[in-house]
Amino acid sequence: MSHHQDFTIQALSENALVLYFGNLIREDIINRISNLNYSLKTAPFDGFIESVPAYVSLTVYYDPEAVLKSDQLKGDYAFEKVQNYLSDLHLAPLPQTTRKELLIPVCYGDEYGPDLADVAKHAGVTEEEVIKQHSNADYLVYMLGFMPGFPYLGGLPDALSMPRKNVPRAVVPAGSVGIAGKQTGIYPLNSPGGWQIIGRTPVILFDAAQSEPAVFLPGSRVKFSPITRADFKMLTN
Q1: Domain boundary among 88, 123, 151
Q2: DSSP H or E segment with residue 1
């Protein structure tokens, strides 16, 4: 294990290492990881395969053979070469598309949000108040995970925090907006899931045919905008 700058580097396997940024989920840490992840993909080293950001870490995968053969990287063995590169990596500014706030339309309740009443009961407020609090909050994409393009969003009002369902649903429709613990998230694809579903967005969140398949990136800002059922149907046609 090695310490560099504001992160700790630890070997994960013969072809991967992990950069740890402490153990607290904070906005400045999320932004730091997003910046380093973007910089690494903008200026990849010889043998770089991919990098995967998480709440407080960034995992970097590489080809050890290509790393060892590289004259670009300094060191005696693969881990040391990659470690040295990451420690000296110049941080590129994040593109404006990452920093821009995304406004996501959501139809709350009824068939689109079957758990809205349960969330309201758990919070001790009306369904209208749940919608108001959920849509008034400012959210930050902590990370993508669980499935392609699924955003874990921080910023949920404390009053709306609620555990996952005891029995997960066999199918949660794509676009479903849910609550689990102190986070909210959106299912990009049809999937089993145990989050408390309070609404649905007509926005397509993941399209593998696009050069950037996921709508969200770690570090993105998000707000929700309530829409009617008529709006939802119009936007899906």
Answers
A1: 88
A2: none
CATH number for the domain that contains residue 164: 2.40.100.10
> What residues contact 166, with CB distance under 8 A and at least 6 apart?
none
pTM assigned to the model: 0.80
Give φ, ψ of 12 to 5 degrees. -100, -40
pLDDT, tens digit (0-9, with 9 covering 90-100), for 203-229: 999 888 887 888 888 888 999 999 999
Q: Are residues 107 and 222 in the same domain?
A: yes
Query: ∠ CA(22), CA(214), CA(195), 5° rounding?
Result: 70
List of residues 6+ apart from 189 with CB closer than 8 A: 147, 148, 149, 174, 206
Q: Are strands 196-200 and 176-180 parallel, antiparallel or unpaired?
A: antiparallel
Q: How many domains does the chain have?
A: 2
Q: Tell whether 144 and 209 lie within a shared domain.
A: yes
**Domain limits for position 103:** 96-236
Interval 22-75: pLDDT, tens: 888 888 888 888 889 888 988 899 999 999 998 899 999 999 999 999 998 999
> Which of 67, 88, 109 is the endpoint of a domain?
88
Strands 16-20 vs 176-180: parallel, antiparallel or unpaired: unpaired
* Exposure letters 171-188 (e unless 16+ CB within 10 A, then b): ebebbbbbbbeebbbbbb
Q: CA 221 to CA 141: how far, in whole Å?
A: 6
Q: Are residues 201 and 105 part of one domain?
A: yes
Q: Which ranges of 152-237 does DSSP label H, i.e. alpha helix? A: 229-236
Structure-token match 């050890």, residue found:
64
